[in-house]
Amino acid sequence: MRLKQSFLFYALSASLLLADVRTAEKSFYRRVGAIVERITPALIEIRRDIHAHPELAFQEKRTAGIVADYFQKLGLEVRTGIAGTGVLGILRGGKKGPVVGMRGDMDALPITEETDLPFRSKEKAMLNGREVGIMHACGHDIHTTLLLGVAHVLSELRSELSGTVLFVAQPAEEFGDGAAEMLKAGVFRDIRPEAMFAFHVEDTAKAGVIKYAAEYAGANVDGFTLVIESAGCHGSAPHECIDPIVVGAQIVTALQVMVTREINVHNDTVITVGSFHAGAAANVIPERAELKATIRSHGGDQRRLIKEKVERLVEHVCQAAGAPYKLNYTIGTPALRNDPRLVQRILPTIERVLGGNQYVQLEPPIMGGEDFSYFAREIPSVMLWLGVVPENVEKTSVHSPTFIADEKSIPIGIKVMSAVILDYLEAERQKR
Hints:
The chain contains nine helices and 16 strands.
């Protein structure tokens, strides 16, 4: 009987303790929510200002100035000029603990905006000798605003923060090398995070939904330029020269056969020849054909395998035709890999903040590129996709001149990421 009573006592004590923890947790999340609600109007104004004044890669001086000024007003240690325009804000909490990081990218795209937003971009710049419009068509204005918002929330909770948070405002994501350049410049030389987090806007989900990938969240971005040469001749006598168009067409087709017949179907691979230029007259076989392709894959082994197969294929097709050629195969941004254990660790927090697991959706690996992968290659990291499709819109496409984002996503993203970082730091403090 005494044993039964003791068991009931400890069970009741544990239940009450768990209830106290959950009550404190709810109270904590409410405090975060209250801060976010208070600062959101000002952050939306900042977002609109950044949207109206976009800047291309490594030219983000105005945006970097806004970020640095905001961090300084929050009392963060601020480092500027990293890889040209990168900014690092360091928030040291009131309690000892680990170091984590959050990244937000700042650059825009050479696209002329075609929305009817009152704060639409009218900025222009010279690129490759021609004037182009500039637009935040990939949501980096949102990403930067989220970075500022999370920094603001955590700075107000500084005394309860169990560790240090690095806020990385990164240039040149669209060019695919801003993160690599920040690492080369020593952004983490004297203070290094043990985990990193980032958002990317998601153009297939409404505000209030977050998507994630269990592992690969982006692909290797490689490619090639191929020039096939010929002496050229008249179209009525094709036997007198090599036809680089025919050779190029054979290569385009052979690449697709290679993907479907030589590559394991479980290993995602995409090869797209997006540019094929040759000739100017219908009755003349040209002296050259130029092909340009993008190649997407996951993992280093797959990347090496595809490069070898493409080089072999091009060599043999051209050799069979007797066609001289020049192949320039380029290795670009590595695949973005979410750390699987870190993903599983933060999912409960995201579900609690959003109000249920129905708002958190697992996505298959995608084939787009994202240079957050350079950070993730060195540090366990997770990128989350934040739904931004407006309520009255079926779809909005990034990298489109008509891209628009629901600003309701901003406070949602700030609450989620603030809670993810706070929960991670507190759990690590308790473990140590």
